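Chain X:
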Amino acid sequence: MIDLATALRRRPVVLDGGLGTLLEARGNDVTSALWSARVLRDDPGEVRAAHAEFVAAGADVVITASYQLGFGGVIPDAEVEALLRRSVSLAREAGDVVVAASVGPVGALRADGSEYTGAYGLTLDDLRSAHRRRLHVLAESGADVLAVETIPSPLEVEALALELEGLAVPAFVSVSADSTGFARDGSRAEALRTAASVPTVLAVGVNCCAPATVLPALAEAPGIPLLAYPNTGERWDAATRTWQGGAAPLADEAPAWVAAGARAVGGCCRSTPADIAAIAAAVR
């Protein structure tokens, strides 16, 4: 297994792709509000197998199935804690790679599309409280790094940064670059600087966005290793729970992301092991 902090300084690191996408392609039902967390609970072997497909495709880092799993929701809290730990152990069993424990936004727990707006009606303290217990469980789970991802607003980034400061665990922080929660006044760049100011944050960047958004977002980013793992170009319709539009080959763009400072590249929603294999070939 690579040392992520060292590797990020030396060469491009390849992230995995869309876990929910692959689970669905493997025949699993991910249409409920629990998304991949339902498979994690009911068929953990499928989660392990999906991680292993991304490892075989060339991923250096696999991101756990904990994105849409949190306390105070449909699943009882005692079961949530066990499932968070299971998500890490399954990723660990998939291969000799870095295990990144996914920490999604509050909106992901609501499954109402607010993960793309940040419009929760919550204060900074509310957001800190909403994330705290999950962060602590995942920090103690044996993961190599916390993958704080798809964060849709400066306020939620600030809340997470404050919580991460109290944890002696490395993390990377990625914002949802197309989110309407970022105004056109530089707030996205400010959010990335806020995340980068936390001593344990190894990298910052963007994910779950259109490929065309990546380079403009990276141009705003602070001078630490950067991340880029967008969707394949399709757009999620939260009302119909379907993807709209056509896909773009991520590997064609990946070298430009690396040239712009990205040291960890991969795919998010709709990206497959074939996409990750192509990205690995393009950047190594």
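Chain Y:
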Amino acid sequence: MPQEHRVAVAVIHGMGSQGDKPQADNAVSFSRDLYQALRRRMGEARFDSLVGWREIFWSDILQERQQGYMDRALKGEANWMGSRDFVMHRLADAASYRWETGDHAYVYPEVHSRVTRAIAHLEGVTGARAPLIVLAHSLGGQIISNHIWDLQKGHSAAPTMFQRFETMAGFLTFGCNIPVFTFSCRPGEVKAIDRPGTAIPAGKWFKPWWINLNSRNDILGMPLAGSGAGYDVLAADGQLRDRWISAGNILTAWNPLSHNAYWTDGDVHGSAVAMIEQAMQIGPVG
């Protein structure tokens, strides 16, 4: 049996209420269902010895302010089936998260400071040469894509190859809404990130390195291919694969439950396990 090596896994949440206070570096909160399912599938001892798992938590940056507005403004007024909660704690996250200049701009840099901190902490846990897998829900896919884009284009910097995502072997997005953000660009200007794992030796990185899972029942999840030329090139080259799954059900298709169903979905679990186990065969990078 081939020797298996340590792998780093970073998990980031997307839109929605995850908590209004910062969490501890080692906490497992929003990803608990996924974390526990993968430990069972891979074997707890094997998982614990070979997988470094860290969450990227940013919900508190916006949630307390959003909820404060709801409490002040509604004052008992109708909130049919939680629809205003859905708008405030999901759509408002997407609206608030955007790159902009000026002293008032704080959400984008604050969110990305959380990414930087979590990745640096994960490097300390697994070592700088561990292959990195990123699991991203919803808006988290856009956040990680932007973070890598900024590094690749020189808009930001990081001190190590791990923190520059150069050891990144795989990217699993689920409930992805990146296409929603592409319409601010002219059609010919929609570009995708380049494969980030440039420190992984030739022949050891895998295709596709980006798998995008979206449920037929989730109105917030979108395929990436077709959203712009950059994503079409990745798909045509076999680097990106969009796949439909069926998380949730028809009764939850229109509400937040379907968008959160990925954490307990077997297809997501299977894809994550396959990606992590494949990365275990790479060995230390660099």
